[in-house]
Specification:
By secondary structure, this protein is an alpha/beta fold. The strands form 2 sheets. It has a 7-stranded mixed sheet with strand order 2-1-3-4-8-7-9, sandwiched between helices. Strands 5-6 form a two-stranded antiparallel sheet.
Length: 252
């Protein structure tokens, strides 16, 4: 009998603490599928900061290190430099990576650190109650923008992939989503590409994943997927913003 579904070996068989409809579980599975397929569980080290990602060590079978809020790229840099033969990735939310951790994020790109950054963008501070994040959409209602984000007073959302693509040390900057099966498949390919880049020592790979936060959005899981498709993707277009392997192929 053909096997059409199996539980990734590097994804621990435990109950989830995430809210119903949260996208973290999907992305966790994709990361673990890639780790399994590449056979690198024993050689992989994850770094997770404060936020909804903080409990990721409960799910990943590989070694996982806790980092201070926003500092996961800095910690991952140290881990990778001490263990250059290991696969090192950070797993971060938008309130972490694009706010208190902006400097760390930018500078791993400028230095071309040979790590993978997996960036979950759900347009809100999920763990602390749904406040406005750097990625909150214009007009989006949050706990701290009850009348919607006003760009005149709150500024505009940060488009992280577009920014990181301008940095010389970035090998891959790609935005994906988990609102549909085709998009989930594309997200896995991007994560795999990031780990393969690290294996080939190409520099920083950052994969931005447009994800859901039904609890803080005040939507059902189904409505949240529609929000990603109808509201987030138009503002944050999916695609590859930089890929050094594609650029090398054109030169060849």
């Amino acid at each position: 009998m053909a096997v059409v579904f199996d539980h990734p070996k590097s994804l621990l068989d435990v109950s989830t603490h995430f809210c119903p409809g949260c996208g973290h579980g999907i992305v966790h599975r994709l990361v673990c599928e890639v780790i399994d397929e590449m056979g690198i569980e024993g050689d992989t080290i994850g770094v997770v900061p404060v936020g909804c990602s903080v409990m990721s060590y409960n799910y990943f079978g590989c070694d996982v290190i806790e980092a201070p809020h926003g500092r996961a790229p800095a910690v991952a840099t140290g881990v990778k430099r001490v263990n250059p033969d290991k696969f090192v990735f950070s797993y971060q939310g938008d309130g972490d990576l694009a706010a208190i951790g902006t400097a760390e994020t930018v500078h791993v790109g400028t230095r071309g650190e040979n790590i993978v950054v997996i960036f979950i963008n759900n347009t809100t501070y999920g763990m602390t109650g749904g406040q406005m994040a750097p990625t909150t959409l214009p007009g989006q209602v949050t706990q701290t923008t009850p009348f919607g984000r006003n760009v005149e007073t709150n500024g505009y959302p940060i488009r992280v992939c577009e920014m990181m693509a301008t940095l010389s040390g970035t090998a891959l900057a790609q935005r994906v989503a988990i609102d549909s099966v085709p998009h989930i498949r594309e997200a896995k390919k991007a994560i795999r590409k990031g780990f393969e880049n690290q294996k080939e020592k190409r520099g920083l790979s950052i994969i931005e994943v447009l994800s859901t936060c039904p609890t803080n959005w005040g939507l059902s899981p189904e409505e949240s997927m529609e929000f990603v498709k109808d509201q987030m993707i138009p503002y944050y277009p999916l695609g590859v913003y930089k890929d050094v392997t594609a650029e090398e192929g054109k030169k060849a």
